[in-house]
Amino acid sequence: MNPLFGNGAKCVFDDFGPAAGEPVILIHGHPFNRSMWAPQAAALAAAGFRVIVPDLRGYGDNPATEEKTPLASFADDLAGLLRDLDIEQAVVGGVSMGGQIAMELRLRHPGLVRALVLSDTSPVPETAEGAEFRRETAERLLAEGMGPYAEEVIDKMLAPYNVTGQPEAAARVSAMMRATDPLGAAAALRGRAERPDYRPVLAALPEEVPCLVLVGADDVYTPVAEAEALCALVPHARLRVIERAGHLPGVERPQEFNRALLEFLGDL
């Protein structure tokens, strides 16, 4: 299914597991696509959950439509997708930028969020320096394409020892980055440069909305200390540190990641 929203954006997605299962939507990060969640989708579907994995606007098979994509637009796209599928509430999970979109979804469409799963992400607003860097990177991607960027960040997306020790995972991550449309990636970077402060959203999260925070032990983008600070905003949140992983523990250590995710979902 490819629902068409009022803003002209199509939402390309996969739908795994039984239709009557507890819905879980997993949101990929930048600059990836829905295939990054393949290990999680398989494990959750086998456990009886319904798993929705979309390509964000401008990523994967979802075409880029504009020069700047705010996180609010991504969240509205996903809210429209859930409603199109007649899903009243879902567990909403995301990694990195996907985690920020999950928090934006809770901000803009709170009733849709049954629980939050936040992996290797940050709720703090962008700094002036960070915003400038994202805008500069957007221009660089448009000028150079994704190849040089993918080569530059691979050992930050994955822990360096996993780049060499897990060549298949490294190749998969690199291929996703290189396949991304620079137009879509640049639009998201410009939008993300203007992201708001999600700490009030987390601080106001009620106990009836459970929250799982995951982080790779060797993540350099969002270190464990930042995950601990995020978790401290939500008194009832759980923190799971995935050893021997960097920024993408769901790719680097899928079994450990899936175990933590299934334990959390099993307690809902």
UniProtKB/TrEMBL annotation:
Record domain AB hydrolase-1: where: 23-253
A matching Pfam family: Abhydrolase_1
Key word Amino-acid biosynthesis present: no
GO molecular function: hydrolase activity
Keywords per UniProt: Hydrolase
InterPro entries linked to this entry: AB_hydrolase_1 (IPR000073), AB_hydrolase_fold (IPR029058), Carboxylesterase_BioH (IPR050228), Epox_hydrolase-like (IPR000639)
PANTHER family reported in the protein's UniProt record: HYDROLASE ALPHA/BETA FOLD FAMILY, PIMELOYL-[ACYL-CARRIER PROTEIN] METHYL ESTER ESTERASE
Record protein name field: Alpha/beta fold hydrolase
Organism: Streptomyces polychromogenes
